[in-house]
Design brief:
single chain; 181 residues; mainly alpha; 8 helices
Length: 181
Amino acid sequence: MTLAEYLAKMKGTAKAPPRVGAVETLWSWAGSFVGIGLCALLSAAYFEPRDLSLLIGSFGASAVLVYGAIKSPLAQPRNLVGGHIISALIGVACVKFFGGTAWIAAAMAVSLAIAAMLATRTLHPPGGATALIAVIGGAKVHALGFLYAFIPAGAGALVLLLVALVVNNLSKDRTYPEYWW
């Protein structure tokens, strides 16, 4: 392949996606507001007083998928919950194994999380961030150890899923999920 052919591949071959209507945007906004808001409320009221959390940054990206791109395979329940839990387990394992060398732990956590999600058919891009948070999240996250995979990663993903099931199915024009397993 020549350099020109290689660079030509970067032009793209598809048209931009169609615009999303106001009603669809409103449903996506409502789901995200309720899902993230509920995680934050439960975190503040019940989890943080026990030195836990129910809110991690990667849930922001999960909200985009499960409320804004509900037909995407990346937004389905298997991917949402499985992707976060698997990635969190891998992230914690990388901290324990490579913890003294943060750059290796970070690179291994994200790379292994991607490979594991692909192998288990649970690819959920925010899972990569969940794995990275296990490494760079600081002493409070590190103190959770493997509990991090279940609280906040798994439990928070379940809250987002429950809200997605309710909100995404309120509209006659939306159906969620496409599949479970």
